[in-house]
Amino acid sequence: MFTIKLSLCILYAQAQFNYFDSLYDGGLNVNELVNSQAIVEFDTGIYSVIATTVNPFTVGQLNYFETADDGHRIKELLIENEIPGQHYSTNLIILSDSIAIAASYFIDTTDQQQHSITQFNRQTGEVIWRRYYGSLLRNDYTSHFIKTFDGGYALTGQSVDSVDAQIHLIKTDNLGNQQWENYYGGVGYESSRSLIQTPDSGFMLLGWTQSFGPGQKAFFLIKTDSLGNQQWQAAYGGGDVSVGWGIIHLSDGNYLLTGGFGNGDAKLIKINNSGGVIWQKSYYYQGNSNNFLNWSKELPNGDIISVGAGYTDSEGNSGLLIKIDSEGNVIWQRKYNKNNDTDLFYSIIETSDGGFLLGGQARNVQPFNQDAWLLKVDSVGCPYENCTVGIEEEHINNSDIVIYPNPFNNSFNINYVLEQEAQEVKIEIYDLLGRNLLSKTIDKTSAGNVTINLAECLGVYVLRMYADEKQVYKEKLVCLQK
Predict the structure, then answer these.
(1) Residue 222 has pLDDT above 90, yes or no
(2) Distance set, CA 232 to CA 40, 224, 238 (Å)
(3) Cβ atoms 471, 449 nearer than 8 A
(4) How far is it, in rounded angstroms, from Cα 358 to Cα 337?
């Protein structure tokens, strides 16, 4: 038996807020594949997006468009290819009212792949300059680029030959002229997914490795000096799909790594500037595996917001949004469904009205097509007014798990019998904003009776139970006494 006291106060008030949930095609044909991997709020209520529009019968083009705060597309420009081939976008930087720059990787008609940066006119779509990078003896995949402290750019990704794949880092001036490049990795395959510039003008590159670490793949972090010379490296975790995706510099001087580990759990790892782990935590939407986080953003109060994909057996892949505090504890989490196949988010920004804009893709199986997906939610993740954040309406009932009494005054009991012995039983309680108010773990048990006392509670809460991280029970609780 254990007793937990909680002091609960739920207040939520919000001024008029514009929500939208929009798909964007490329206007070519039903078989095209479109995604959105980068979004920028340039003017208040105007969002700039770089996407890839791929018609499998022709070419893939960079697709730049702008939307208003109601999701209405107010501008769309296809950035033309000057030579036959396909451009696949990675991210976007807005330079001025009229100029933007985007990174991509380019596949020519012989299947040769190269890194590319394109500067273009935001009003007309005209290419101002475009540069290609990499060796004709290798295939290069671009994943991310940034504007550097000296006004130039740095680009990273993967460079592949017949023997291995290495992490590739390229530094350019402000006109995209290459200044230097470096390769990193071991005897196996490596790839980077993101980079940042560090206060000493060096770089950190995050991705995955098969050469180092304990598993088939592991998170892989490389630190370089300002000229790209490697200073140190670190590997974290390991497994079939242990991939680091996004890295951000936190306000306390540390760094946050975002991605997923081999057992299907989304993962955040906070490290210091030497690569030492401060904390690392896994996240499971409703106890399900096969979750992944692509990118995170730190909010002004130190909380973290992260996006990716969450999986359930009934719905497949859904867009996933998680908010945590500075110690990695879940404040709330939410999933979003759009189409009937693979829904996920690559990017997120905080909007000027206090909400969030999520960018990604939504794909249908029949007919097969994929659209760019932008979802505007408010500060607690609601896609519409007064939603129940992080709390799904359906119940998961199990005749061998009983809560009594319910409603209750200040305490209730949980009596449970599991079908088989579990190594770990977890009990969680959430409020209606999806905030995790209680997390209790019971080791190696198949049956038990637990009493929980709640001090100063009033209203509706949700209880969830997990057996070895699989959700086995979910029910609403009603507290009648404050």
Answers:
(1) yes
(2) 32, 7, 19
(3) no
(4) 13
Which of 260-264, 269-273, 353-357, 419-423 has the weakest average pLDDT?
Answer: 260-264
Cβ–Cβ under 8 Å, residues 103 and 115: yes
Q: Which fold has domain 20-377?
A: Methylamine Dehydrogenase; Chain H (2.130.10)
- Of residues 450, 407, 408, the one with CA closest to residue 427: 450
Is the pTM for the entire model greater than 0.70?
Answer: yes
Q: Indicate if the pLDDT at residue 388 is higher than 70.
A: no
What six digits make up the tokens of 168?
């590739």
Kindly list the distances between the CA atom of residue 443 and the CA atoms of 227, 415, 438, 453, in Å, as whole numbers in the listed order: 51, 16, 16, 21
Burial class (CB in 10 A: 0-12, 13-18, 19+), 141: buried
Q: What is the pLDDT of residues 233-277, one digit of tens each?
A: 999 987 777 899 999 999 999 999 999 876 678 899 999 999 999
CATH class of 401-479: mainly beta
Q: Which two tokens stand for residue 137?
A: 């003896």
Name the least confident of 33-42, 99-108, 373-382.
33-42
- pLDDT tens sequence across 152-173: 999 999 999 888 899 999 999 9
Amino acid identity, position 234: A
Give the N- to C-terminal CA distance of the chain in Å, as an integer: 22
9 has a pLDDT exceeding 50: no
Q: Which residues pair with 127 in a beta bridge?
A: 120
CA–CA separation, 248 and 221 (whole Å): 12
Domain spans, the chain: 20-377, 401-479
* CA–CA dist 257, 142 (Å, integer): 19
